C-alpha cells in the first residue's frame, strides 16, 4: 500500500457552499455513474472536484488520451454548480475600460479576447459532444449605473471596439423603446450563452467517463505530497491515489496550499419567479446593471426570470444564510422597479459562496511548491466561462504544450497587480 508522509499539504478548506433551493434543483437530475474508492490506485491525472470546473477539465484531459480519475467529497454536481445562474458571458465583471487601468490596455484586451474564445469553445465543444443543456444564444444588455454612467458606457464602447468586440450603444430613449426600461442608457453585446448548469456539467462528466475516466465519490482528499516524479493524494479512509498530475477543481473551497492573496470569498443571492412568458422583455436578453451592488437577469427555458446580485463579503455560512430573506425581498423590489409588469415574487430563492478577485480575472496556474499540481481560482461572475478557459489552459500546461496567455492568469501576475 502506498503511504503519504507527514510532509504534506491538507487538501481544501471545507465550506457549506450554498443554501436554499435553486431553480435547477426543481428539475430532474441527470445521471452520472459513480464508483467507490476501496483500494490504492494509479492514474495519469487526478481531478479533485466533480462540479462544472472538474467536468470541463476532465473532459479536456481525457480527450488528449490521458487516463483521468475524478474524486469528489460529496458526489457529482452537488457543490456550487447548482447555485450558478449560468449566464455565460465573455464580458468580465470588470469593464474593459476599467480593467485597462488595472493591468494595462494590451493585457486587458488579451484577457477579454481569451474569455471570448473560451465561451465560443464551450459552445462548440458541447455541440460536438452532443450535450443537451438547454443551450440558447442570448445577447447582453449592459445598463448604466453607478459604476458606469452614460459617459462611462461611451468609453467602454470605444474600448471594446478597439479590442475588436462588436457592441452597440443605446440611448435612454432607445432602451425605453426597445425594452421598456426607463432612465438608463446601455451597451448591447452579442451571442452569449444561457445553459442549465447541472446538465452541462453532467454532459461533460459523462463524456470523460465514456473515454475510460472514473468518477469516485464520496472521496475526501485529505492531503497531498508532490514531487517531480509523482503526486500522492491521501484520502479519508486510507486509500492513496498516485498520479502524474493533480488538478484542484474545488471551486470556492480553496486548497490550503494555494496562495490566497488577491482572492476573496463572497456570497451572492438569487431568485427565480414563476413562468410568465407574456410579461418578459423583448428577446429575453441577459441584463446586467453597471452598479454596486450589481444586478443581473436572465430567462429560463420555461420563461421564469432569474434575478441575482446583492453580494456580500463571506464571513460564515450562518451569517450568509441569515440574510437570505432580506436579500430575496431586495431582489424582488429591484426586479419590480426595472420591469413593473413582471410578477417579481420568488418561487425559488437561494444563495451561494463564490471566489472572486480584485480585478475580475481568474488565476490558472501551477501550485507554488507543489510540483505537478495545478489550480484555478477567482471565477467571479464568469464562473463557467473561466472554467472552460481553465480546462484549455491546464491541458496545455499538463501536456507540455503550454499556453500563449498563461502569463495573464498566473500567481506571479496577481502578485504584480496587487
Give a verbal description of the structure.
- With 418 residues, the chain is of the alpha+beta class.
- It has helices spanning 52-62, 96-103, 105-129, 150-163, 172-179, 197-210, 317-322, 324-338, 383-399, 411-417, and strands at residues 9-10, 18-21, 41-48, 68-71, 87-88, 136-143, 167-170, 186-194, 214-216, 221-226, 231-235, 240-248, 263-272, 286-289, 295-299, 305-313, 348-357, 363-366, 373-377.
- Helices cover 30% and strands 27% of the residues.
- Strands 2, 5, 6, 7, 8, 13, 14, 15, 16 and 17 form a 10-stranded mixed β-sheet that branches. Strands 1, 3, 4, 9, 10, 11, 12, 18 and 19 form a 9-stranded mixed β-sheet that branches.
- The longest helix is centred in the first third of the chain and has 25 residues, at 105-129.
- It is globular, with a radius of gyration of 21 Å.
- Mean pLDDT is 91; it is low at 5-10.
Order of helices and strands: EEEHEEHHEHEHEHEEEEEEEEHHEEEHH
Q: How many beta strands in the DSSP annotation?
A: 19
Gross morphology: globular
Main sheet, how many strands, which sense, barrel?
Answer: 10 strands, mixed
Low confidence ranges: 5-10
Number of helices: 10
Helical percentage: 25-40%
Radius of gyration: 21 Å
Class from secondary-structure proportions: alpha+beta
Amino acid at each position: 500500500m502506498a503511504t503519504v508522509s507527514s510532509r504534506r499539504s491538507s487538501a481544501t478548506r471545507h465550506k457549506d457552499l450554498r443554501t436554499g433551493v435553486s431553480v435547477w434543483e426543481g428539475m430532474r437530475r441527470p445521471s452520472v455513474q459513480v464508483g467507490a474508492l476501496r483500494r490504492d490506485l494509479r492514474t495519469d491525472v487526478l481531478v479533485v472536484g466533480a462540479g462544472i470546473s472538474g467536468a470541463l477539465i476532465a473532459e479536456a484531459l481525457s480527450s488528449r488520451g490521458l487516463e483521468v480519475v475524478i474524486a469528489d467529497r460529496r458526489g457529482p454536481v452537488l457543490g456550487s454548480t447548482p447555485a450558478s445562474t449560468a449566464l455565460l458571458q465573455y464580458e468580465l465583471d470588470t469593464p474593459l475600460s476599467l480593467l485597462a487601468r488595472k493591468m494595462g490596455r494590451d493585457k486587458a484586451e488579451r484577457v477579454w479576447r481569451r474569455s471570448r474564445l473560451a465561451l465560443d469553445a464551450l459552445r462548440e465543444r458541447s455541440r460536438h459532444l452532443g450535450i443537451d443543456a438547454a443551450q440558447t444564444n442570448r445577447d447582453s444588455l449592459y445598463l448604466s449605473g453607478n459604476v458606469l454612467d452614460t459617459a462611462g458606457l461611451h468609453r467602454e464602447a470605444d474600448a471594446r471596439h478597439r479590442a475588436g468586440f462588436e457592441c452597440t450603444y443605446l440611448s435612454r430613449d432607445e432602451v425605453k423603446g426597445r425594452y421598456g426600461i426607463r432612465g438608463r442608457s446601455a451597451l448591447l453585446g452579442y451571442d452569449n450563452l444561457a445553459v442549465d448548469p447541472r446538465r452541462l456539467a453532467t454532459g461533460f462528466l459523462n463524456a470523460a467517463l465514456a473515454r475510460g475516466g472514473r468518477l469516485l465519490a464520496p472521496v475526501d482528499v485529505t492531503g497531498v505530497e508532490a514531487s517531480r516524479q509523482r503526486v500522492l493524494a491521501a484520502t479519508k479512509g486510507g486509500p492513496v491515489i498516485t498520479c502524474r498530475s493533480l488538478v484542484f477543481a474545488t471551486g470556492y473551497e480553496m486548497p490550503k496550499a494555494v496562495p490566497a492573496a488577491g482572492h476573496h470569498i463572497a456570497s451572492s443571492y438569487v431568485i427565480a419567479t414563476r413562468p410568465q412568458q407574456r410579461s418578459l422583455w423583448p428577446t429575453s436578453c441577459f441584463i446586467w446593471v453597471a452598479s454596486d451592488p450589481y444586478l443581473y437577469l436572465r430567462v429560463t427555458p420555461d420563461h421564469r426570470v432569474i434575478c441575482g446580485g446583492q453580494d456580500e463579503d463571506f464571513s460564515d455560512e450562518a451569517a450568509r444564510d441569515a440574510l437570505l430573506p432580506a436579500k430575496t425581498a431586495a431582489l424582488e423590489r429591484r426586479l419590480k422597479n426595472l420591469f413593473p409588469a413582471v410578477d417579481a415574487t420568488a418561487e425559488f430563492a437561494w444563495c451561494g459562496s463564490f471566489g472572486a478577485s480584485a480585478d475580475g480575472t481568474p488565476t490558472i496556474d501551477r501550485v507554488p511548491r507543489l510540483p505537478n499540481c495545478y489550480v484555478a481560482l477567482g471565477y467571479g461572475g464568469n464562473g463557467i466561462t473561466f472554467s472552460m478557459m481553465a480546462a484549455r489552459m491546464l491541458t496545455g500546461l499538463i501536456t507540455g504544450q503550454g499556453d500563449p496567455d498563461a502569463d495573464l492568469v498566473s500567481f506571479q501576475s496577481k502578485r504584480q497587480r496587487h
